Amino acid sequence: MWNYNEKVMEHFLHPKNVGEIENPDAVGEVGNITCGDALKLTLKIDREKSRILDAKFKTFGCASAIASSSALTEIVKGMSLDEAEELTNKDIVDVLGELPEEKMHCSVMGMEALQSALANYKGEKPKTFSPDEEHEGKIVCKCFGVTDAKIKKVAIQNRLRKAEEITNYTKAGGACGSCLDEIQNILDDIWKDKGCPKENNGGFKCMTIVQKIVRIQEALDKEIKPLLEKDSGSIELVDVNGTTIYVRMQGRCAACPVSHITLKKTVEAKLREFICPEINVEEIK
């Protein structure tokens, strides 16, 4: 039996926004019952403000699938479409607190359902990672129909380096296991040239604490604060420990219910881009 935390159990036992919106503006469907998980997401959208007004879901799956879908609908309500497009499975897990590693694919399914719904709203073809078009990649796991394109995307978003981690996040390799070596080769190719080399980030890991603070503060002042100030928010550097940076959200950001998404999608992403790709940002209340 899986050891679920209280938040996951709450969303499982008392899921929010179950059902289907009548005459929805967007519909996203992913998964299939044959593979054990399926999710249908419907959205109501304010076209003038490009903002999600309501979200409902129907899912076939385990407790993690139900909890992830419930959390997803709570996150996206009130979001702008631009914000929703940037949402990842990590944002869903952050709301739930955690998921068992073996159930992370449920959060990925939620992310893909949202992407499918947004594509549907725009009249675009959903990015299903099917092999129908060459640029979408080729199937690596025939048992679950997982392509190399999906493996690469999930690996980069979640910094996965082992084949068994990909199985937890996508199910690929979880049946016959014949594709595990190919999955590992894909991961090795992704990460062999990545990391935090000195020539690309000024040797951040080797800097003194004072040098790190100066570098981080400069990035905050020039790249991040101007973005937050557009919505009457701000940010304060609190502490630095290795590649972990502790900050305090200020202004409207401090009270925003989705500040954790801003923390990861804006603050952490920018610091990784301008300083070091291994940086992790944590919020101090």
What is the ordering of alpha helices and beta strands?
HEEEHHHHEEHHHHHEEHHE
In this structure, how is the largest beta sheet organized? 3 strands, antiparallel
**Residue share in helices?**
40-55%
Distance, first to last CA: 34 Å
- Which structural category fits the helices and strands? alpha+beta
Give the strand content: 15-25%
CATH fold title of the largest domain: Sufe protein. Chain: A
H/I helix tally? 12
Total beta strands: 8
Order of strands, main sheet, comes to 1-2-3
Mean pLDDT: 86
Structural Rg? 20 Å
- Overall shape: it is globular
Domain count: 3
Name the CATH architecture of the largest domain. Alpha-Beta Complex
CATH top level of the largest domain? Alpha Beta
pLDDT under 50 segments (min length 5)?
128-135, 195-202
